Amino acid sequence: MNLIFKKIEEKDKGQLFSLIKTVLEGLENQNYFIPYEQWELDSMFDEKNYAPLYGAYDGNKLVGMAQLYVSQDMLADFKKEFGLEKYTVCELGGNLVLPEYRGNGITTKLQTIELELAKKLGFDYIISMAHPNNIGSCKTLEKVGLEFVKETKLSNGFLRKLYMLKLK
Question: Could you tell me the pTM of the whole model?
Answer without folding.
Answer: 0.93
